Amino acid sequence: MCHLTHAVGHSLGAVFHMAHGLACAICLPQLLELYADWMPDRVRLVADAMGVKQAEDMASEELGKKTAEAALAFMKLCKLPTLKEQGLSLEEVCAKAVPMMSKDGCNLIAPRLLPDSKFKAMITAAYDL
């Protein structure tokens, strides 16, 4: 379930020399929402580990949203800097790193192949959360 976080992480690390763990975490909330739709059982495990209250019949959309909110809260608690706080411009990230994400080997073996447009939307959403 970590394929796409690594596609983001590899690309941000290669272009901006960002620490791998931080780079992988940048879009974690957005990716948890995607994965909740694709593999809700695995996201339920993540939600359980983060203490997210969930009903057995919870829709995957709600599961993804709640799990993403918990991940973002944890990221804030750990004081992980956003792309903006790291001094990166959204335009530069989208121009230089996003095209690499869709070509990354981790994207190619992910449950679903994401296009540049989806990575760009996630980076845009995560830029200053």
Short structural summary:
This protein has helices at residues 3-16, 20-25, 28-38, 40-49, 60-77, 90-96, 98-103, 105-108, 116-126. It has 129 residues and is mainly α. The relative contact order is 0.20.
For this entry, give a set of tags.
129 residues; mainly alpha; Dehydroquinate synthase-like, alpha domain
Question: What is the CATH top level name?
Answer: Mainly Alpha
Named CATH topology: Dehydroquinate synthase-like, alpha domain
Regarding quaternary structure, what we see is single chain
Low-confidence stretches: none
What count of structural domains? 1
Describe the fold and architecture.
It is a single chain. The protein has helices at 3-16, 20-25, 28-38, 40-49, 60-77, 90-96, 98-103, 105-108, 116-126. It has a single domain, classed as Dehydroquinate synthase-like, alpha domain (Up-down Bundle), CATH 1.20.1090.10. It is mainly alpha-helical and 129 residues long. The radius of gyration is 14 Å and the shape is globular.
